[in-house]
Amino acid sequence: MIAAAFSCLSAGAANAGAWPVAPGKTQAITKYERQSADQGFDSHGVLIDIDRRRDEVVSVLVEHGLTDRLTLQAKAGVTRGKDRWVDYSGRGPVELGLRWAVRRDDQSALSVYLGAAEAGEGRNAGYAAPGQGSLDLEARVLYGRSATWRGKPVYLDVQAARLRREGLADENRLDVTLGLRPTRKVLLLAQTYAGHADREGPDSRWLKSEISVVRAFGPWSAQVGWRSTLSGRETARDRGVVLALWRNL
Q1: pLDDT per position as a tens digit, 92-108
Q2: Which of 17, 36, 159, 175 is 20 to 30 A away from residue 140, measured at CA?
Q3: Residue 167 DSSP label
Q4: What share of the chain is helix, strand, coil (3-state, %, to 5)?
Q5: How far is it, in rounded angstroms, from Cα 16 to Cα 228?
Q6: Model pTM score
Q7: Contact by Cβ (8 Å): 155, 176
Q8: For residue 201, how many other CB atoms are within 10 A of its CB?
Q9: Distance between CA atoms of residues 65 and 98, nearest Å
Q10: How far apart are CA 7 and CA 214, in angstroms?
């Protein structure tokens, strides 16, 4: 999960997932995600037909600056979906954690995140049945760097995480975000999400991409994007739209 790709579109320094939120400041991101699939990758990575499935999530991510280095992060939402065997709706995962900035300067930041999440009614892992899973414990290292390319601000955010999961396989994840700001109010984002689930027998792994545009309207920003699964094993080829509203408080 990218914590908060970039929290401001002003001409000043960018705040990526690795950067702490300023003390007393809050960022809220309300996001709608719709993913569907009628194909999947088998244990050899070969694309095959599967029973059609659909998953929808509306979530709210809140980040609040506690100190110059410490940021509180919380997420909750609702979900619904349908496949051949089940039609579900209800509460989504609830997450809570702290992000500590180990080092930061004008161009880069290195942080660590520790958090916990309680599984929801829906699909708590792309390779699992809806409702499967319980408590997750997550440790994450985040590195962000800003620079200039052809006179335009660019940003790189790299995050590596280890999840201990009850009721699901433990996971390793790697998330990478590249951002380019062509104008003061527009941000272009290219993101990849890679992961591997520990399990006996065939293992599940995935590589997803997301391309989106974020446009600022005063204190609000609107995001429109598309996410798709590029490759994997023992996972569905999910694809769908991502819509979000960002608000800095």
Answers
A1: 999 999 999 999 988 99
A2: 36
A3: S
A4: 0, 70, 30
A5: 22
A6: 0.89
A7: no
A8: 6
A9: 10
A10: 11
**204-244 pLDDT, tens per residue?**
999 999 999 999 998 899 999 999 999 999 999 999 999 99
Query: Looking at this protein, which amino acid is placed at residue 194?
Result: A
C-alpha pair distances (Å), 29 with each of 84, 170, 186, 245: 32, 27, 17, 6
Find the length of the chain. Answer: 249
- Per-residue tens of pLDDT for the chain, all 249 residues: 333 344 444 333 334 489 999 999 999 999 999 999 999 999 999 999 999 999 999 999 999 999 999 999 999 999 999 988 889 999 999 999 999 999 998 899 999 999 999 999 988 888 888 888 999 999 999 999 999 998 999 999 999 999 999 989 999 999 999 999 999 999 999 999 999 998 765 589 999 999 999 999 988 999 999 999 999 999 999 999 999 999 988
| Phi and psi, residue 151, nearest 5° | 80, 5
Among candidate residues 237, 238, 236, 179, the one with its CA nearest the CA of residue 213? 179
Q: Among 179, 178, 184, 181, which residue's Cα sits nearest to residue 152?
A: 181
Tokens 């990526």 found at:
16
Nearest 5°: CA angle at 199, between 198 and 203? Answer: 85
Tell me how far apart the alpha carbons of residues 124 and 95 are, in angstroms, rounded to a whole number.
Answer: 12
Token readout for 133 is: 């899973």
**Complete DSSP assignment for 75-91:** EEEEEEEE-SS-EEEEE
Helix (H) or strand (E) holding 27: strand 26-41
Alpha helices, DSSP H, located in the chain? none
The Cα angle at residue 245 between residues 236 and 24, in degrees rounded to 5: 115
Six-digit token string for 173: 């994840």
